[in-house]
Amino acid sequence: MAGELYVVATPIGNLGDMVPRAVEVLQAVDVIAAEDTRHSGRLLSHLGIKTPLIAYHDHSDDRKVDKFLEFLKQGKSVALISDAGTPLISDPGYKLVSTVRQQGYKVVPIPGPCALVAAICASGLPSDRFTFEGFAPAKSSARIKAFQGLEQETRTLIFYESPHRIVQALEDMVRVFGESRQIVMARELTKTYETFLAGTLAEVLGQVASDSSQQKGEIVLILKGADSEEGVDDVEQQRVLSLLLDELPLKQAAALAAKITGGQKNALYQMALDQKKVST
Questions:
Q1: N or C: the chain end with fewer CB closer than 10 Å?
Q2: Contact 5, 106 (CB under 8 A)
Q3: pTM greater than 0.85
């Protein structure tokens, strides 16, 4: 184990999910880089591990990274853990792993729990192709813009979301992806109050908005991708919309064009606005 960095996954809730190899590595390394030493200290105490902890996150200054590099230069081994789950998956570690690799040291993954993997495999939504988007932007305007960039993505979309923003995030999803897009919300995975809510965006939003208990804990959103035929023929959508705009008010033309072409009402409304601007 001399001069090696181990990237070690830890439980996302149920301590029984800690794999034996991870325990062995954390016992054997010389030092552990932890996102929160107090939080991780409780886990190590439960497991009977007495390896020293040093705080590390991606906002740590270069001196902290240099400190771990010095350990490796001395032939010592280092383990990297986050508060829960697999490090670097919306958790700290990228800067340290990247630097260690650049310096020529070996990086060894110790796989284990990961919230996005646990969520999608139990969601019932397509899992053969998916994209992980991490946390959507905190502000609604930026969040909507990010969602709009994914509106025609055919792969299943996975997001992490904060409990205090979950209602607003679902509302923004409805605005962009439409009420009928299928979604699964996985909450508190592997914990006592593990919950899966499945249905259309409108249905899940209604459940979450009306039940404050669904606005707590760790949340993963799994959104079905766009159907492959959705929104592909923009030329046809524009042709139909142009014909309707000659006879109908903008909002009515966009709604009718959505029904005729199968396109997204919000996207067609924006397209209609753009066409009106050009014509004037």
A1: C
A2: yes
A3: no
Mean pLDDT of the 246-269 span: 87
Pairing of strands 4-8, 78-81: parallel
| Rounded alpha-carbon distances, angstroms, from residue 277 to 47, 134, 186, 262, 274 | 65, 35, 42, 24, 5
Long-range contacts of 247-256 (CB under 8 A, 24+ apart): 250/276
Q: Is 155 exposed, middle or buried (0-12, 13-18, 19+ CB in 10 A)?
A: middle
- Residue spans of beta strands (DSSP E) within 83-125: 106-110
- Closest by Cα among 70, 83, 103 to 93: 83
Give the tokens for residue 39.
């939080």
pLDDT confidence band for 1 (50 / 70 / 90): low
Contacts of 57 (CB under 8 A, 6+ apart): 35, 92
Is residue 172 within 8 Å of 143, Cβ to Cβ? yes
Which whole number is the average pLDDT over 54-71?
90
Mapped onto helix, strand or coil, the DSSP state of residue 186 is: strand
CA–CA gap between residue 274 and residue 280 (Å, rounded)? 10
Q: Which of 91, 97, 105, 156 is nearest to 129 (CA)?
A: 156
Specify whether the CB–CB gap between 244 and 223 falls below 8 A. Answer: no
Element (H or E) spanning 205, and its range?
Answer: helix 201-210
* Residue 5 CA: distances (Å) to CA of 151, 160, 227: 39, 27, 42
How confident is residue 231, by pLDDT bands cut at 50, 70 and 90?
very low
Pairing state of beta strands 195-200 and 130-135? unpaired
